[in-house]
Fold Ig-like domain-containing protein.
Amino acid sequence: MPDQDGVTPSPSVRAPVHPGGRPAATRPAARPATLPSRAPARTTRRPVPAARLSASCPGGIETAARIGLSARGATVSWVATAAHGLEVSPASGSIKAGGSVRIWVTVTDPTAAGAGRVAFTSNGGTVSCALTWAGEDGHQPEASGPPDDGPAATPSEPAASPSGMASSAIDDMHGE
């Protein structure tokens, strides 16, 4: 029914009234049920493979030779250290997992017989190559110890040296 202004009022909700004229108590609205909290789902992650550096060493050297380096598991960053009488190029670098590079080792004085070691230190371990070269007299000395008290001839953990891998195996990897 319209009121004095001619507007029809909209229905309103009123609290029920007790017979004594007081409003009756109303119940609070039902609260939504809370779900039991769940622990986050566990995700199983594979362990990250460890970076590993390996080297392919030539048996001897005349004036220059190649050393093959390869990386497994993850990218390997390396630095080379050469004994007196040897030069290494490049002297540092990085190799992506599954990749390989060739490093040149040069005898600084090929007229004199000598022996030395090239060590490669990396986040994937340390490997080294013992090299000997004959001077003009053709006498080839025994390999000397590591440069600067570096690693022994065998790689230290975690690096691994491929067994029986000759320097030509690296050449084959590069299609030569």
